[in-house]
Design goal:
By secondary structure, this protein is an alpha/beta fold. It has one domain: Rossmann fold, CATH 3.40.50.300. The chain has seven helices and nine strands. The protein has a five-stranded parallel β-sheet with strand order 2-7-1-8-9, sandwiched between helices. The protein has a four-stranded mixed β-sheet with strand order 4-3-6-5, with helices on both faces. Helix 5 packs antiparallel against helix 6. The chain is globular, with a radius of gyration of 16 Å. It binds guanosine-5'-monophosphate. Guanosine-5'-monophosphate binds next to strand 5, strand 6 and helix 4.
Length: 190
């Protein structure tokens, strides 16, 4: 059996600030490495292949499902598949680091289910659905139709918060970031 490290999952509705929190944690001295998911959607203008996601075609994604290459995968939005490759987790553990995930709620819970003993699953709670919508509009990376889709999904996802090990309230970003770091320090030293 290959060596296992730890897994830290950050899940939240889109626009809750989890990506910012994860990026901040990666810049601290915690021996973390980001799990780069595979995704079948188009990259946004600011995104880089093999850094933000492994952007692959729908066909390629389906082939990988067939070959059982994913720990978990999901069709998050119609025809937009996202998933965690088994090889990605193993690559990070082999390098002696812990894996940190920025994935959707169902995916996060699936990781926890598969690795119950070495996963810390954190749900990032946005202040309100109205605030979330404001942030998505402000980010201006999505069409109004796509924002509406993400807001609807957020309302659904907030129901899952209680299944996580911890709910992190992101009202003031700096406070949430410090709290996240303290949680990780405690979990990683166990
Ligand atoms: P976005 O398109 O905004 O980058 O991501 C859309 C959603 O897919 C987000 O909620 C994101 O967390 C989720 N996601 C990203 N990677 C994965 C993954 O590997 N597995 C699952 N299940 N969801 C993911």
């Amino acid at each position: 059996m290959s060596k296992q490290g730890k897994l830290i999952v950050f899940s939240a509705p889109s626009g809750s600030g989890k990506t910012t929190i994860v990026k901040n944690l990666l810049s601290r001295d915690l021996d973390l490495e980001f799990s780069i998911s595979a995704a079948s959607r188009e990259p946004r203008p600011n995104e880089i292949n093999a850094k933000d996601y492994h952007f692959i075609s729908l066909e390629d994604f389906r082939n990988k499902i067939e070959r059982d290459e994913f720990v978990e995968w999901e069709e998050v939005y119609t025809n937009n598949f996202y998933g965690t490759l088994k090889s990605e987790i193993q690559r990070i553990w082999d390098s002696g680091k812990h894996v940190i995930f920025d994935i959707d709620v169902i995916g996060g819970l699936n990781i926890k289910k598969q690795y119950p003993d070495n996963t810390l699953a954190i749900f990032v709670q946005p202040p309100s659905v109205a605030e979330l919508k404001k942030r998505l509009v402000g980010r201006a990376t999505e069409t109004p139709e796509k924002i509406a889709m993400r807001v609807a999904k957020a309302e659904e996802e907030i129901q899952y918060a209680e299944k996580f090990d911890y709910t992190l309230y992101n009202d003031v970003l700096e406070v949430a970031q410090d709290e996240a770091e303290q949680l990780l320090i405690k979990f990683l030293e166990k």
